[in-house]
Design a protein that fits this description.
By secondary structure, the protein is an alpha/beta fold. It has 17 helices and six strands. It is elongated, with a radius of gyration of 22 Å.
């Protein structure tokens, strides 16, 4: 039985934003040795493994587990890839590998909603947003909670508590299951737009097809804008010559940023180029790009509390889950909107947890 898994070392190192050189210095070995560990050419000694566990803040048992599915950069769509460092991108993808580990563990015990996302690669973003609204029975009404909606359609939504503005959000398909990761340090309105943006990637691009780069980001932005603010409802309430205070009132209807409202009105030809430019300047002058006026309440998962409640009823605690996965409880909590410390406190004995399956439903 293997006692060391190279893929787990790679994931843990990247999760801690360490390159190989800095990691080698942290554990007192040379760069070639670290490369050998990660290639599986040889294993660290027990003493070195203890140093690795301490440096990376993962239990030593984590490095002896099975192969991890680590998302590749080419399979994920990032909301802010152009301004993201390679280290931050790799750390975010490493969090995806840990989310896969957690969701696999959960799905051995619970049946979660099946994915219900159509392939809309043949449609333009505006038409795709309308098609998806029709298929999901949303009509023209505002979407009250994007996270709940995504979860109800089988998207696995996780949080990122990244201490950087570089990492907004990212999404990917893992086989037939869609995933979205949201940075919870942003405003509620920005996070909702990020969720809709990543939904656009999931249905328009399927990660790996054309278009890519800036064109794909532009399409996802157009999709998100149209999905959150459908054309018909915008035309029904749009003023003839809105000022910024009027836009602040309108943003509350669709729960988007004031900048997003201005963008949508301009895209639909309801603002001239000059008027839109003036509003953008005023938005910046008032500081609304970083401090959203009359901000909404942050959206949280509906699915994950139900998951944790089901586990709590079975006597399964945070300590149980962390021990089974060989991951620190804090690391898991960062993936699940910091819900576990609230939902799964307790002192049950750590041990093997049964795999009895139950079915969970959520409502949008």
């Amino acid at each position: 039985m293997p006692t060391f898994n190279p893929s787990r070392l790679r994931v843990a190192r990247k999760r801690r934003l360490l390159n190989k050189t800095r990691f080698a210095e942290a554990i007192g070995v040379d760069l070639r040795t670290v490369t050998g560990y990660e290639r599986g050419e040889y294993e660290p000694s027990p003493a070195t493994l203890a140093l690795i566990a301490r440096a990376l803040r993962f239990p030593a048992g984590f490095f002896a587990g099975g192969e991890l599915h680590e998302p590749a950069p080419t399979t994920a769509s990032f909301r802010s890839l152009a301004r993201m460092s390679a280290a931050n991108r790799e750390a975010a993808l490493a969090s995806g590998a840990l989310a896969f580990l957690l969701i696999d563990w959960i799905e051995q015990r619970l049946t979660l909603p099946a994915p219900d996302l159509p392939d809309l690669r043949e449609e333009n973003p505006e038409a795709a947003a309308m098609t998806l609204r029709q298929q999901w029975g949303l009509g023209e009404r505002p979407i009250r909670n994007m996270v709940h909606l995504l979860e109800s359609k089988g998207v696995r939504v996780f949080s990122m508590f990244e201490d950087t503005a570089e990492v907004d959000a990212f999404s990917l398909w893992r086989a037939t299951t869609p995933f979205v990761f949201l940075n919870t340090m942003k405003s509620a309105e920005q996070s909702r737009f990020d969720a809709a943006h990543e939904l656009g990637h999931l249905v328009l691009h399927r990660h790996g097809g054309a278009p890519t780069g800036r064109e794909a980001e532009h399409e996802a932005n157009r999709f998100a804008s149209a999905f959150l603010m459908p054309r018909g409802s915008v035309f029904a309430v749009a003023p003839v010559f809105p000022n910024l205070d009027r836009l602040i009132e309108l943003k509350r209807q669709w729960i988007v940023s004031v900048a997003a409202v201005a963008y949508r009105l301009h895209a639909l030809g309801l603002l001239t180029d000059w008027h839109y430019a003036r509003l953008c300047i005023e938005i910046g002058e008032r500081g609304y790009r970083t401090n959203e006026p009359r901000s909404a309440q942050r959206e949280m998962s509906q699915l994950l509390p139900k998951v944790f409640s089901a586990f709590r009823d079975e006597g399964i605690t945070l300590s149980n889950i962390a021990a089974e996965l060989q991951i620190e409880a804090e690391e898991i909590d960062k993936l699940v909107f910091q819900l576990m410390l609230v939902s799964l406190q307790g002192g049950a004995t750590v041990g093997t947890i049964p795999s009895r399956r139950a079915f969970l439903q959520i409502v949008k």
